[in-house]
Here is the input.
Amino acid sequence: MALTGLEIFKLLPKTNCKKCGRPTCLAFAMQLAQKKAELKDCPDVSEEAKSKLGEASAPPIKLVTIGTGEKQVKIGEENVLFRHDEKFYNPTGVAITLSDDLDDKAFTERLNKINNLKFTRVGTEIEIDLIALQNNSGDASKFTERAKEVSGSTHLSMILESKSDDSMKAALEICADKKPLIHGANAENWESMANIAKEKNCPLTVSAHTLEDLADLTEKIKGAGVTKIVLNQISENIKEILQGLTKIRRAALKKAFRPLGFPTLTFTPNGDPCQEIANASAFLAKYAGIVVVNACEPWQIMPLLTVRQNIFTDPQKPVQVEPKLYEVGQVDENSPVLFTTNFSLTYYTVEGEVEASRIPAYILAVGTEGTSVLTAYSGDKLNEKVVGKAMTDAKLGEKIKHKKLIIPGLVAVLSAKIQEETKWEVLVGPKEASGLPAYMKTNWH
Ligand code: SF4
Here is the structure.
């Protein structure tokens, strides 16, 4: 169990020297106990105290990395139950299953399909992270052959799923350098799986039906020398899975219960293809480190990745585009000019509708600290002066002949002031971006 603030205090130098940036050693100890400080901030702590305090200063949920290179997946090391308290740091890894008992053609087709599940949303590329290769054939040589094919033709990280240590050993002989997640250890095979994970220096999943059994297994596996552990509570019941994920997160953060202080992996029960994604989205929000789905159609995966993109943004920092003048299509000095704010969602919605109008246009993204049009207007971050300055900075006067500016219908109230400030003719556009194509075709000649 983690140490209390007073227990930590007894191990500190007690000189109140303030080198750690806190007024007293006691204040530092209290913050260390609450995971709000790091032990390295105190330069005078003794080696003996360091080893005793190591556990207290460790993150409540261990960071586990899977794979190598650019697509390495990092899970764990979260500090809060609710993202509005701080933010969630390491996005849930999305994995798609691939069974080794598919025939050659079906296997390669599904592998290629999984590899190509990439989308662009609000200017960011989003894609899945892992392929979960399943040893459903039960055949070690088949599993190895398939692991070789996956390893040689994917940029994604891998999960190797087999209960057989022979299959696992054989597959790892050819892809251990990719540092796949080994899935997995259970009450029967934990010793052999822990030995394999330790030898190959790969992370290991631990599976059990209850949290008590999971905690018991992680202690045994840690004792065997494996520290990169991922928890998997086995269940086909959605409610039970969500309860398990929540209890694990609570036990780690609120009770500092080290045996459950690891990230989690969750399988999504089979069923209706829409329901599968709805369930996976719920697990992603609370609190799966990795969610494994069977779905591999773009219409299923994109919503799941969209949920992840939304959950793992910092709620205190709106996603922004650079405030500047953007060109959509082959613009020239006669092209229409619209403005909106630099809130990503707003900007890309407007950009999409301008593209749909098929009329090349300039979009001036006015800097409003990433807030939407109405929010910026209400907070006085969007007014005639701000718009005028953005137009000057973008040198609109030198680029455009017609001197007409289309403004969002939501801030029609600013039209006279903007006109007076900029000396441009102001045209009030639609209130919703979806009205832009019709508006442009009707009003822009
Ligand atoms: S730096 Fe160390 S000794 Fe100095 S006040 Fe902080 S905790 Fe105490």
Remarks:
- The chain has a mean pLDDT of 94.
- The first helix runs from residue 5 to 11.
- The first strand starts at residue 64 and ends at 66.
- Residues 64-311 form a domain with the TIM Barrel fold (CATH 3.20.20.20).
